[in-house]
Design goal:
The protein has 7 helices and no strands. The chain is mainly alpha-helical and 262 residues long. It has 2 domains: 51 residues; 156 residues, no CATH class. It is elongated. It starts with a helix and ends in a 14-residue tail after the last helix.
Length: 262
């Protein structure tokens, strides 16, 4: 009886040892699984905490790239629209414009000469009368003729620039073609007025022949009136011919100051 009991006790000890080892292994496995789960949770939390910063940095980089692209688009030179080539003027217009331009240059030269002469005569009259007490009558006569000449040549120059007479209050409400036709009619009216002025000027020249003078005969001085009227009429004739040529070609002339020299 003693031997079996001892053997049973020995077997039960071994079984209890094996059970203890298995329980330890189970605990270690549970601990490892729990540590793995906690590590996974920590990595997930880290990824979650880092994701907003990453998204914010991504959004910032995208906004910076967009701002840079917009700046480059602003700084990039804008492509100019293709300019249409200027239409060629009708036959004969270029030559008429050159003649009108040359006549205008001559008028400018005479006008400047008359202006400087007016300043010089006026200065002489003031200095001679106020300082040297010299009273001459010819400066009064010269000043009258110079003022008259400046008025006539200035009117001729303004006619060359196309600024002497216009009907803007009416032409603004018309189409381009009708505006040109109205300008032609206005030019014809001005040419008729210049004809009357030229005729009256020659009549005045004939009436003043043989009159007394100190500096210049009145008949010679009064030639400025018909000459200036003829210059004004010449410019309006040239402008009217250009307008008619444009209308005959089915086009409208450019709205510019005076005639353009090509």
């Amino acid at each position: 009886m003693g031997w079996p009991l001892i053997r049973y006790a020995h077997v039960s000890k071994k079984a209890s040892k094996n059970r203890g080892k298995q329980a330890k292994k189970g605990k270690s496995a549970k601990a490892s699984s729990s540590s793995g789960a906690s590590a996974k949770e920590s990595t997930a939390e880290k990824s979650e905490s880092s994701s907003p910063t990453d998204s914010a940095s991504k959004s910032e980089s995208e906004s910076e790239s967009e701002s840079e692209s917009s700046d480059t688009m602003k700084d990039a030179p804008k492509s100019e629209p293709d300019k249409k080539p200027a239409e060629r003027a009708p036959n004969g217009v270029v030559g008429i414009e050159k003649v009108d331009h040359v006549v205008g240059l001559v008028e400018q030269a005479f006008l400047m000469a008359f202006l400087f002469s007016l300043i010089g005569v006026g200065t002489y009259q003031f200095v001679a009368g106020m300082i040297f007490n010299v009273n001459s009558t010819w400066p009064f006569e010269a000043l009258q003729y110079l003022v008259f000449a400046i008025a006539m040549f200035g009117a001729a120059l303004s006619a060359q620039k196309g600024q002497m007479m216009s009907m803007d209050f009416l032409s603004r409400k018309l189409s381009d073609k009708n505006r040109v036709m109205l300008r032609v009619v206005t030019n014809l009216f001005v040419m008729f007025a210049c004809y009357l002025l030229t005729r009256g000027g020659f009549i005045g020249v004939e009436a003043t022949e043989g009159s007394e003078y100190e500096l210049l005969p009145k008949s010679t001085a009064y030639l400025v009136l018909p000459v200036g009227a003829m210059l004004i009429a010449l410019h309006y004739v040239l402008h009217t011919i250009c307008d008619v040529l444009y209308l005959a070609a089915g086009r409208t002339p450019p709205e510019e100051e005076g005639l353009k020299v090509h």
